[in-house]
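Escalation from tier 1.

The customer reports that the assembly of two entities below gives different structure tokens on two consecutive runs. Tier 1 could not reproduce it. I'm attaching the input and our single run for tier 2 to review.
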Amino acid sequence: MIDPKLLRQSTAEVARNLARRGHAFDATAYLALEERRKSLQVDTEHLQSERNSRSKAIGQAKAKGEDVAPLLAAVADLGDRLASRQADLQALQSRLRDIELNLPNLLSDDVPDGRDATANVEVRRWGEPPAFAFEPRDHIALGESLGLLDFDAASKISGARFTVLHGALARLQRALISFMLDTHTDEHGYQEAYVPYLVHDLALEGTGQLPKFAADLFRTDSGTPFYLIPTAEVPLTNLARDVIFEADQLPLRYTAHTPCFRSEAGSYGQDTRGMIRQHQFEKVELVQVVAADASAAALEELTSHAEKILQRLELPYRVVALCAGDIGFGAAKTYDLEVWLPGQERYREISSCSNCTDFQARRMQARRRNPQSGKPELIHTLNGSGVAAGRALIAVLENYQQADGDVRIPAVLQPYMGGAKTLQG
RNA sequence: GGAGAGGUGGCAGAGCGGUUCAAUGCACCGGUCUUGAAAACCGGCAAGGGUUUAUAGCCCUUCGAGGGUUCGAAUCCCUCCCUCUCCGCCA
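Tier 1 run:
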């Protein structure tokens, strides 16, 4: 959520920032509502104050044994007047909040202009796409010919956009996850967490998936509905909900492996083949909770932590700064990591690292105590995949394939694979 | 799933319709005293929102959540949530 004070005081500026994303914000309509809210709220609180003081006087008069009938008469219509004002105010406030909850975060000044992914800016590359002496195959052909990847079985059980992994390939995914978690906890200072995969709507509102993106989520139809997490960012970031941290408790760094569930509504026809875009996939997530003035540096650092995984796996990748039109709802600035996929002969997203500034913190009242003023102030939250395990699995298959159809196992994963050097072992 | 108990400020804990615009204690912060510390004493000590140049004042809201009764609700009524104990079931 954007600071409502900023929204009403610097409306034009905010609108200009949002316009960079292609988001049209009707500043005039908003300000009109806001003006009514102001007078209505001042009015309502006035009446509340009057009711309080009159009720108090009645109490005091009663204690002295005086006749309170005239006092009661004087206050007779106050309740009704107050109730109607309060109802109007509440309706207006919920309209304003609805608008505010549907506004994306303000973009950081250094986000490049552009309407879509084609305008994203490559920041750097690492590694060289491997040169094959044969025609490289994609992960589908590789996995199926090895007998380790089974889309038919998955569709029998659950339909499209699911995968069954067998044997060494299932283990390879587990190896990737363990390797990532170990690296982040042992070397990057993250604390591993195990978190719920089913969450309340409040948690999703806190990170920004709700109310706007309900269609992307799976919801249970149990009594009080749960949502399946679309990313571990949701439970991890919500660890800071309603907390006032002491300055020395920050930064907080959490990592977790979880499955992620996405309805992929609206992506029909995209990546329907293979395991690029699934309803269920595994991911290792990184989340940081930091003081406001530390978030810009933290984004660079968090991104480097995700990069480190690809470097250790010796997978060629590039870092891309997302442009204004391609950046996510809650992010002020985002770097995507794109890994080279020989089967597609292109770089594909494998990690997305974002600085959400105070956007999520405001929604979930995540604060720290300012050591100078002693006052609570909003913290900043960051998240990034470190990295998506399913896509890392694809990248390993395609980049490590050999002429005979076998797949070598990256050196850092071999200890997790019982020492095996190839997928066939 | 069954039965019971309970949810009050950082913690403990009182209050059960107006004298509590939440007592008291602990913790914490400042001060006095002291060579220093402790003790003792004095003072301070929630969050959100509104108004405002203001993190100054003033006002509103918040005693698990939501609704209701009332001039007035932490206190009465209804619904829900959560925690704990015992029983049952279960990885």
